[in-house]
């Protein structure tokens, strides 16, 4: 829990409660955060800090932070103001991310494609060709879904996985639909 040191309705300092604090001319040991009641802490100007919600780093950046002091309750409420990241920049970032993930999934079996190109008598296992086609198809589908987003909310929706009541996955997030390569482990290099 975080604490705010307040004097004359002004925020002086924020403390994690893991070190001694100085209030006025008195140094208090860190144990006061464990042993004193909230009322006792309030009496010396140590208020409970109610932390604000942090920005979702995927889509937002923090701009300014403000604090509202409630002397009667002995609380300080933090508000973190946020700004949406630029939609076009995010679309580029997430498109590149999906393309890189797809390339990483394909790379361990690229050797089979190169071998086939250099020696047409060699074959590529059907499990591998099916997997590789699936990666390309799903990657293209995700990239198109990103491209089609004309609002930040639509882009955010691509990251949402829906769950059934029993906590099993109902609908996987679009951004998480690239196939996994567990069935082609034996062909990887």
3D architecture notes:
- The protein is α+β, with helices and mostly antiparallel strands and 189 residues long.
- 35% of the residues lie in helices and 25% in strands.
- The protein has 6 helices and 9 strands.
- The strands form 3 sheets. The chain has a 5-stranded mixed β-sheet with strand order 2-1-5-7-6.
- The model has no long low-confidence stretch (mean pLDDT 95).
List keywords for this structure.
single chain, 189 residues, alpha+beta, five-stranded mixed sheet, two-stranded antiparallel ribbon, 6 helices, 35% helix
Describe the structure concisely for a colleague.
The chain has 189 residues and is of the alpha+beta class.
Order of helices and strands: EEEEHHEEEHHHHEE
Q: Count helical runs.
A: 6
Instruction: Work out the number of β strands.
Output: 9
Structural class: alpha+beta
Helix content: 25-40%
**Average pLDDT taken over every residue:** 95
Largest sheet: 5 strands, mixed
Q: What strand line-up does the widest sheet have?
A: 2-1-5-7-6
Shape: elongated
**DSSP strand (E) fraction?**
25-35%
End-to-end separation in angstroms reads 49 Å
Radius of gyration, in angstroms, nearest whole number: 27 Å
Poorly predicted ranges (pLDDT <50, ≥5 residues)? none
SSE blueprint:
Elements: E1 3-7, E2 10-15, E3 21-23, E4 26-28, H1 32-35, H2 38-43, E5 46-50, E6 60-70, E7 75-84, H3 87-106, H4 110-118, H5 126-147, H6 152-157, E8 162-163, E9 169-171
Parallel strand pairs: 5-7
Antiparallel strand pairs: 1-2, 1-5, 3-4, 6-7, 8-9
Helix pairs in contact: 3-5
